[in-house]
């Protein structure tokens, strides 16, 4: 267990947890930058976490819930107030409602995570700042300290797993809920390169093609909130065409973009796509959370082979980024 010390300072209204690890600093940082890894240890064993959103950049936000032994859920959020990549980040941490909004009747805290290199590996110092002695005592009584210790006891197994989250892995699909799926892949390139490749029509036409042989017949790109897009393709024979349309709801280059998506000619509400680009070892972690109207629609979309087509396109994107200018 990596836990080195836990100190509570009532005069400063803080609780400081120090943990030491035998892995290099970048490996430890990535465990907190990658929601696939973070959710494996953020909650204690009896209350595992699921991250619905994790935007590790200033102004970004995380939303998660922990599931209890009887299936009950406790929701939380982070608001990132500062990030020094590879070294530190600071968040406002609080309890949330089911739809991700802060629970005003519950206390929130400021948390500072500091990462540093040591002679034997790396160290994480997490300092939580409380608003009052009463809130500190309330949260300690709710099991915050024991929960943090239990959660920290799981991180060694995550850090030792060098295969599950490696850069060479193909696209991973994770079902978050009955109507949500998360698609994750590390792409060799920077967030800026990937963002550009997604918003430049000439670049987009060279990689976002799905299976080999398909080609664009229309490529109208949306770049800012309020813009609409339309992408249309046909197969190698010029048949079986289809089109996707939607609108940009949020845009924060090169970190996060939220869009709607509908298949042209198909009735029903659009899906919601939330994409985040996060620098990690080996490139950029692309995380896409798609929310569908219901489970049947989610399963129908996944059954089309969409994930396989996405993987083929992302592999092509990597080659496009790596090609000489």
UniProtKB/TrEMBL annotation:
Q: Which organism is it from?
A: Nesterenkonia natronophila
Domain Activator of Hsp90 ATPase homologue 1/2-like C-terminal: where?
Answer: 23-159, 190-319
- Name of the protein in question: ATPase
Q: Which Gene3D superfamilies match?
A: 3.30.530.20
Question: Record's family?
Answer: Belongs to the AHA1 family.
Q: What is the lineage of its organism?
A: Bacteria, Bacillati, Actinomycetota, Actinomycetes, Micrococcales
User: Coiled coil: which residue ranges?
Assistant: none
User: Record's superkingdom?
Assistant: Bacteria
């Amino acid at each position: 267990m990596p836990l080195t010390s836990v100190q509570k300072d009532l005069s400063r209204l803080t609780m400081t947890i120090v943990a030491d690890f035998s892995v290099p600093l970048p490996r430890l940082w990535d465990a907190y930058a990658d929601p696939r890894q973070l959710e494996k240890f953020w909650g204690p064993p009896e209350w595992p976490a699921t991250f619905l959103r994790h935007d590790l950049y200033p102004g970004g936000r995380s939303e998660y819930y922990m599931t209890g032994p009887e299936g009950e859920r406790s929701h939380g959020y982070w608001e990132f107030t500062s990030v020094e990549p590879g070294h530190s980040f600071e968040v406002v941490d609080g309890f949330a409602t089911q739809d991700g909004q802060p629970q005003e009747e519950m206390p929130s805290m400021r948390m500072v995570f500091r990462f540093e290199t040591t002679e034997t590996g790396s160290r994480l110092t997490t300092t939580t700042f409380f608003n009052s002695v009463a809130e500190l005592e309330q949260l300690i009584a709710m099991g915050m300290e024991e929960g943090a210790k239990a959660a920290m006891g799981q991180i060694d197994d995550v850090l030792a797993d060098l295969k599950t989250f490696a850069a060479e892995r193909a696209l991973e699909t994770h079902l978050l809920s009955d109507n949500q799926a998360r698609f994750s892949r590390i792409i060799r390139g920077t967030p800026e390169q990937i963002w550009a490749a997604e918003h430049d029509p000439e670049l987009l036409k060279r990689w976002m093609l799905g299976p080999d042989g398909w080609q664009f017949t229309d490529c109208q790109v949306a770049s800012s909130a309020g813009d609409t897009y339309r992408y249309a393709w046909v197969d190698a024979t010029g048949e079986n065409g289809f089109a996707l349309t939607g609108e940009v709801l949020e845009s924060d280059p090169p970190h996060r973009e939220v869009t709607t998506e509908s298949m042209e000619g198909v009735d029903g509400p659009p899906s919601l796509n939330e994409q985040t680009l996060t620098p990690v070892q080996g490139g950029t972690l692309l995380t896409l959370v798609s929310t569908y109207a219901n489970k049947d629609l989610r399963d129908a979309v996944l059954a089309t082979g969409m994930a396989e087509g996405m993987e083929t396109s992302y592999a092509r994107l990597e080659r496009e980024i790596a090609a000489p200018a």
